[in-house]
Amino acid sequence: MADLLDVPYFPFDENGYRLSVGLAPLPSNRWMEPDRLAVQQLRLRGDLLTSHREDVLQYRAESAAACLELNRAVRRHLLEHHPNYACGTEQHIRIASTQVVLPPPANGLQGLEQLAHLVQEDFCILSSESNPTLIAALVCFPSHWKLQEKMGQTSDAIHAVVPKFADKLAIPTNAILSKLRPNRPVWRINWSIDGDDSLFTPGPKSFRDDLSVRNVLHSTWLRAERQTLRRLPETGSLVFTIRTYLHRMADVAVCPNRRTKLLASLRTMAPDTAAYKGMVAMLPLLIEALERLG
C-alpha cells in the first residue's frame, strides 16, 4: 500500500522505545487529512455503517449538541482548508471524490453518521465534565478493540489495559484533558504491527501460522494512527480523532534510515508493551529479518 516516499508518519527514532503521551501543537489547517485513498475508504466506511452499525457507531442522547457542533466544524474545516476535496456550502457540502452531497443533519445521530461520508478520520466525543466520559463515537477502523466496551468510560478506564498507563501516563493525560482549550488542539502518533492490511479490526490480533524470518516482512503491516485532540468551543466537549495509515513492513524496511530507527525501538520495547501490542511471538522474527537487510 506504500512506496518508498509514502510513509507520512514514522514514530521511531534511534533512541529506542519511549513511553510518553507525545503530544504536539496541531496547526489549524492539519486537522483532517484527505488523500488519494478517500474514495476507497469512504466507501468502506459507508458499508460498515450498514453491515456493522453497532460495532462502529455508538451514540447517547446527551451527545446531540456536541455531534452537531462537530459536524459543522468538520464541514467548515474542509471548505476552508481542502477546497479541492470539498466544495459547495456548509449547508450543502459536496465531496468531490465521491460526488456525495450532504445536507445539514436533522439531529445529533445523523450529524455523527455523516462524518463517515465526509472524511477518513474516526471520531470519539467525550463529555465536557472535569472527568470526561465517552458519550459518542464513530470508529470504523478500530485497532483490536471494541467500541461498545468503551462507551461511558473515563480516559483512565479506557486506557487501563495500556502497560504503565496508571503509573506514568494517567496524571499527565488527565491534566492535558482538563487544560485543553478550543484554540489549541494537539496531536500524536500511535503505532502497532498487524498481520494483515484490514482497516476494520475490532477482534484480537493474529498473524499467519507459518510466519518466519523469510516471510515476516511481507506478511506484516505497520499500522500508524494519527490522533488529534481538541475541545469544541460551544459545548466544551472533547473530540478525539484517529486517522489510520497502513504500510507493508517490506516497504517500510526498504529505507535504511527507517530500518535503523525501527530496530532501535523494537529491540528496546518492554515485554509487557510487546504483549499489549500482540507482538511477542512475531517480534524476534521481525527483528532478525530487519537485521539481515543490513
Descriptive report:
With about 290 residues, the chain is an alpha+beta fold. It is built from 11 helices and 10 strands. A hairpin with a 6-residue loop joins β9 and β10. The two termini are about 25 Å apart.
Produce a short descriptive summary.
The protein has helices spanning 38-51, 53-56, 64-81, 108-118, 147-150, 155-158, 165-179, 249-252, 256-268, 271-276, 283-292, and strands at 24-25, 57-59, 86-88, 93-95, 100-102, 122-126, 134-138, 186-194, 221-231, 238-248.
Helix-strand makeup class: alpha+beta
| Rg on CA atoms, Å | 19 Å
**What is the general shape?**
globular
> Mean pLDDT, rounded to whole units?
94
Give the DSSP E fraction (strand runs of 2 or more residues). 15-25%
Quote the distance from N terminus to C terminus: 23 Å
Counting DSSP H or I runs of 4 or more residues, the number of helices is: 11
> Order of strands side by side in the largest beta sheet?
1-8-9-10-6-7-2
Low-confidence stretches: none
Number of strands: 10
Q: State the helicity in percent bands.
A: 25-40%
Largest sheet: 7 strands, antiparallel
Order of helices and strands: EHHEHEEEHEEHHHEEEHHHH
Topology:
Elements: E1 24-25, H1 38-51, H2 53-56, E2 57-59, H3 64-81, E3 86-88, E4 93-95, E5 100-102, H4 108-118, E6 122-126, E7 134-138, H5 147-150, H6 155-158, H7 165-179, E8 186-194, E9 221-231, E10 238-248, H8 249-252, H9 256-268, H10 271-276, H11 283-292
Helix pairs in contact: 1-4, 3-4, 9-11
